[in-house]
Recover the amino acids of this structure.
């Protein structure tokens, strides 16, 4: 739609918040003006109506759906609008759009902390972790305090850019969700403890701006906070749930503050009108996915024992694929409590 959207940020006070809001408003308007009619119709409920039109055009009586990542919000929106037209719906690593935003955020932070605990446990046992033998959580907290006292320099390409604790937490997400990148994450933390943040951002680009089309959808779907007071309240809640990564969700949704209105708010599913759903939940997102399937009687959430986002599509995990295909094709759910181990390659 336009080149880039607003920048992720976590301001510390009202003045900084107002500056971020001013910048994000200008960026949002530039994106809106590039395609105003499209921009106004990107919420997931509108897209769900488009999907239902495709179903009808194909002559299908009911929809069989696999939603990966944010595609799960599209699936939940369809289920709310057309529950009687759902034949089967599998939701893999999806955000929770069926509970109030404060609870949805809490579920996300619980997954982040669980992932960090697994990372620390891996570090204690693996020769590939340069922090082996150290208290990883304590080291990370010390790095965050150090970065707030004196923001850290980065890679040569970063120039004069400096990285504070908020930057390090947001950038850690790129290293957190794949066990294959955990050695690099550990090395980045060690380097940061020595005064350099280059391991978190080797190219020196800083925090990425948010894709405008995705942002237009997410903000219209209600992933936002209500002004500065709502922002501060959300930060306070996140600090209680996630002492190691508080603020990472707020850094993204602050971009939604300039939005005029939410056209597709978070809302419960009409559980008794829907067939049983299948959720697929990696460690990071299991609680979020389970919070969706629990609203529909008879549903099952398949636990994936790895962190990778989207094991059906992104990992091609054979165990996950077998369960999902059996459900989508034959309507057979796995047993309650079923899980898929991480495949050893």
């Amino acid at each position: 739609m336009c080149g880039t959207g607003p920048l992720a940020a976590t301001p510390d006070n009202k003045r900084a918040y107002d500056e971020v809001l001013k910048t994000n408003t200008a960026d949002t308007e530039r994106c809106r003006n590039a395609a105003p009619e499209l921009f106004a119709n990107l919420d997931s409920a509108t897209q769900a109506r488009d999907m239902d039109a495709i179903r009808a055009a194909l002559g299908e009586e009911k929809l069989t759906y696999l939603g990966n990542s944010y595609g799960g919000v599209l699936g939940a929106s369809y289920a709310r609008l057309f529950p009687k037209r759902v034949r089967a719906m599998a939701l893999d690593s999806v955000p929770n759009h069926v509970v109030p935003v404060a609870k949805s955020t809490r579920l996300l932070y619980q997954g982040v902390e669980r992932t960090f605990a697994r990372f620390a446990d891996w570090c204690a046992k693996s020769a590939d972790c340069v922090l082996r033998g150290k208290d990883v959580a304590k080291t990370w907290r010390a790095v965050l305090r150090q970065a707030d006292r004196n923001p850290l320099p980065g890679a040569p390409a970063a120039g004069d850019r400096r990285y504070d604790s908020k930057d390090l937490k947001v950038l850690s997400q790129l290293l957190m969700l794949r066990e294959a990148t955990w050695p690099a994450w550990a090395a980045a933390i060690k380097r940061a403890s020595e005064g350099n943040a280059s391991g978190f951002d080797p190219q020196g680009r800083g925090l990425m701006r948010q894709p405008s089309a995705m942002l237009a959808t997410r903000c219209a779907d209600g992933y936002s906070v209500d002004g500065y007071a709502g922002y501060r309240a959300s930060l306070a809640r996140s600090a209680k749930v996630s002492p190691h990564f508080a603020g990472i969700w707020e850094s993204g949704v602050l971009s939604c503050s300039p939005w005029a209105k939410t056209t597709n708010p978070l809302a419960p599913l009409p559980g008794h009108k829907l067939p049983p759903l299948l959720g697929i939940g990696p460690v990071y997102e299991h609680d979020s996915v389970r919070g969706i399937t629990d609203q529909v009687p008879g549903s099952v959430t398949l636990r994936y024992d790895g962190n990778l986002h989207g094991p059906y599509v992104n990992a091609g995990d054979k165990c996950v694929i077998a369960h999902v295909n059996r459900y989508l094709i034959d309507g057979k759910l796995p047993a309650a409590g079923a899980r898929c181990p991480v495949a050893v390659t």
The chain has a mean pLDDT of 92. The chain is about 50% helix and 10% strand. The first strand starts at residue 63 and ends at 68.
